Every structure is written in C-alpha cells, then in structure tokens.
Amino acid sequence: EPEVTQTPSHQVTQMGQEVILRCVPISNHLYFYWYRQILGQKVEFLVSFYNNEISEKSEIFDDQFSVERPDGSNFTLKIRSTKLEDSAMYFCASSPMENQPQHFGDGTRLSIL
Amino acid sequence: GNSVTQMEGPVTLSEEAFLTINCTYTATGYPSLFWYVQYPGEGLQLLLKATKADDKGSNKGFEATYRKETTSFHLEKGSVQVSDSAVYFCALIKAAGNKLTFGGGTRVLVKP
C-alpha cells in the first residue's frame, strides 16, 4: 500500500538555525499538509497546499515557516530561524482530494537546543 | 471555531474487555468525522470515518456512529487485544474544508 514518507526521523538543530523537513506524499494525491504535535499536546494543523500554493494556514504558520514542492515528488517544510518552542513532532499528510481522509507519515521529531 | 473533545486517558483494560472512547465535537454544518490511531513509534493511521449523520464507520473490529443530535462519534470495540494498545485520536474536517481538527488523544493500554 502506498505511504507517505518523511525524512529525517529525528532532527536536532541549534536555536536560530534553519531546518528543512522533507516529505514524499502518495504519488496520486493532490493535497498536502503539515501538522505538528508538541509533546503532551494536541496535533495541530499548520498548513495545507494544493496546486502549488498554500490553500489554508493556521496562526502558528507565521513568516518563519514556508512550504515548497520543489519537484514532482517532494514536499518540504522550512523553518528559517528555529526557536526552542518549535521542538515538536512534525507530521506530513496527503489526500487525493479535498475533504478526503488524509494519510500521514511517521513524523519527524525536531529537537531545538 | 471547530473543536473536538475526547475522554482523557490512560484507559487500562484487560484483554477481551469492551472499549469505549467518548468523542464529542463542535462544528457548523456537517463535518466529516474520523478516528486515527497511533501505535508506539509510528505515525497516525486512519482507523475509520463517517461523512454524514447516522453513518457507521468500522474497521478492525472498531465501530463509531456519527450522531448529529448529540454531536458525538464514540469509538467502540467489543473485545480488545494487547495489540490494540495505542493512542486514539478523534478528528473532524468541516464541510468543504481540508483541515483536520484533532481531539487531545486517548491512550489505551490493554493488558494480557
């Protein structure tokens, strides 16, 4: 069964550094998402992406965050200048259409030191 | 705004016991409702879904019925196994939307 893959599984970065989290969505899916889960808290929506542009974003997704689909397969989340509070598990997801079940990757644990 | 509330865990059960995890939601219109499961060390997996009132989603022995009148989507399983130990998340997508809103998750531990 096709699946969403995320790399790396764990990323450790110094505060203030840029970090890029990578995702390969399921190949025939058109909608892509990033969520995050701070330890002990809810899974929170960050951003959705369709047709090479952001379709919706949350208040968390400020100017420090950006997403990109640099080629036909990868979907990336960039944090420009990381803060301690960015430490979380970041999940990528994809769906074939809007309002369809989303398929999640195993997540990238981001630790900011 | 939209929100999902689910019972706090952990829920500890013996094998073959009956499991219920309560989930209620607040949303305008008719959202789609989902249960996701997260096994230790893994990502979120879709367990089941329901897209309209009175729909019943089912998978792997789990069931949940979309109750519009009580704005609920409680998860049930008649006889749990040790392998069902995981964190379960209730979630919704609003009508014509694409953002999942999650509940806080309920950790379930099944003991042999």
Describe the structure.
The complex is a heterodimer of chains A (113) and B (112). With 113 residues, chain A is mainly β. Chain A is built from no helices and 11 strands. In chain A, strands 2, 4, 5, 6, 9, 10 and 11 form a 7-stranded mixed sheet that branches. Chain A has a 4-stranded antiparallel sheet with strand order 1-3-8-7, with no helix packed on it. Chain B is an all-beta fold. Helices cover 0% and strands 51% of the residues of chain B. The termini of chain B are far apart. The model of chain B has no long low-confidence stretch (mean pLDDT 94). At the A-B interface, β4, β5, β9 and β10 of A face β5, β6, β10 and β11 of B.
Which terms summarize this structure?
heterodimer; A: 113 residues; mainly beta; seven-stranded mixed beta sheet; globular; B: 112 residues; six-stranded mixed beta sheet; four-stranded antiparallel beta sheet; 0% helix
SS-based structural class of chain B? mainly beta
Radius of gyration of chain B, whole Å: 13 Å
The parts of chain A where pLDDT drops under 50 for at least 5 residues are none
Average per-residue pLDDT of chain B, rounded, comes to 94
How far from one another are the termini of chain B?
41 Å
Please tell me what the overall shape of chain B is.
globular
Structural class of chain A: mainly beta
Largest interface here, residues on each chain? A-B, 27 and 24 residues
